[in-house]
């Protein structure tokens, strides 16, 4: 590397670093393009979103049902429930963490989503097609939602959209049964919702 190249690189590095740190809306993973097909479950596609706050416009169905902001996690789970389970949620808006109502008892109907809600630590074991809800975090105050794609004796697999620029569309979470209660081993996981 010559002196001129080193000088130019060092000159732009601080600006580029500050820009990357302050804006989660850009695509940091150059292996994918925003909107690229990554995965699918039951013919419902998972798309790449870039940064967790990226917004690519609203997705609505042909009958004007609000599915969500394109390529966000909420858009995938609502599209999955709409296309695969023929389910429209009465409250078509809200952040991911808002899908879980902390005031409900285990196994009670969540009227905003028209789904039965189970807390993490439920008598009911998660099932495929359940919608899991995560609380917010330091880097994502809106929370996260995903779909249970498979369940084994000691873990579940989820499929998700928008887990971050380097996150994977599929992830596994340990499942435990303690004193007859099913618990998913993730401190941010609030519970799961189910169409019954």
Walk me through the structure.
It is a single chain. The protein is an alpha+beta fold and 196 residues long. The chain has one domain (32-194): endopeptidase fold (from Nostoc punctiforme), CATH 3.90.1720. It is built from 2 helices and 12 strands, in the order αββββαββββββββ. It has helices at residues 3-22, 73-84; strands at 37-41, 44-47, 58-60, 66-69, 108-110, 115-119, 131-134, 144-151, 155-159, 170-178, 181-184, 189-194. The strands form 3 sheets. The protein has an 8-stranded antiparallel sheet, with helices on one face. Strands 1-2 form a two-stranded antiparallel ribbon. A hairpin with a 4-residue loop joins strand 5 (108-110) and strand 6. The chain is globular, with a radius of gyration of 19 Å. It starts with a helix and ends with a strand. Mean pLDDT is 89; it is low at 1-23.
């Amino acid at each position: 590397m010559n002196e001129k190249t080193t000088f130019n690189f060092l000159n732009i590095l601080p600006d580029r670093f500050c820009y990357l740190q302050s804006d989660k809306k850009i695509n940091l993973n150059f292996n994918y393009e925003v909107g690229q097909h990554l995965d699918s479950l039951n013919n419902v596609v998972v798309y790449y979103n870039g940064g967790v706050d990226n917004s690519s416009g609203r997705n609505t169905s042909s009958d004007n049902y609000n599915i969500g902001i394109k390529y966000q996690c909420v858009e995938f789970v609502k599209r999955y429930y709409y296309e695969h389970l023929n389910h429209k949620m009465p409250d078509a808006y809200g952040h991911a963490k808002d899908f879980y109502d902390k005031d409900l008892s285990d196994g009670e109907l969540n009227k905003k989503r028209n789904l039965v809600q189970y807390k993490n630590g439920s008598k009911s074991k998660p099932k495929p097609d359940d919608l899991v809800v995560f609380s917010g975090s330091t880097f994502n105050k809106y929370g996260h939602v995903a779909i249970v794609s498979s369940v084994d004796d000691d873990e579940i697999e989820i499929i998700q959209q928008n887990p971050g620029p380097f996150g994977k569309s599929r992830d596994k979470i340990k499942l435990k049964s303690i004193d007859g209660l099913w618990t998913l081993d993730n401190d941010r996981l609030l519970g799961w919702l189910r169409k019954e």
